[in-house]
Fold this sequence. Notes:
Elements: H1 2-31, H2 37-44, H3 48-54, H4 58-78, H5 86-114, H6 117-123, H7 125-140, H8 150-169, H9 178-190
Amino acid sequence: MAHSAARSTRRADARQNVEKIVQAAVTCLGRNAEASMNDIAREAGVGRVTLYAHFSSREALVEAALVRLLGQGDEVLEAIDLSSDPRDGLRSLMESGWLLIAQAASVLQAAESTLPPRRVQELHAKPEQRVDDLIRRGQTEGVFRADIPADLLASALHHILHGAAGDVAAGRLDPTDAPRFVAEMALAVCAIPAAPRPSR
């Protein structure tokens, strides 16, 4: 019984350490995309031996931090009602997505410079599929343009979000204006083009 209790305690301590380390990685990488393993260990309040016992490389820890943020973001996006007018859904997705991108921009920068591009794409597959599905429904219902493939429109929206995050970081865009701007740009990209005016 004593051995069983000791094992349970060790497992609980290990889970607690992993939680502290991943949260510390989110915090440190959120401040500085180049934060080191030493920086993260100090933030977590653990030694290097403990850190490396759970995460053998910086790459593994960066991935864990990104997975944590994407999971938290997915909970937010899952709560958005996308069953009504696709235009309303797109506006809500872009406004909420902007906030998530802004919060995760530095962590994403760390991931893009550390992880293989294919792995970053895999981790983003679920939120990207959500946008793609919404655009396809909007095309089917005749409220989004269908002359451009849905995946290309979704890619354009992805660039709008990340471009806005970069502009805010560089001081070129007021963060309070960003949600409205990215939503309006997304709707403009997906809108059905106006019929050309007849020549006189």
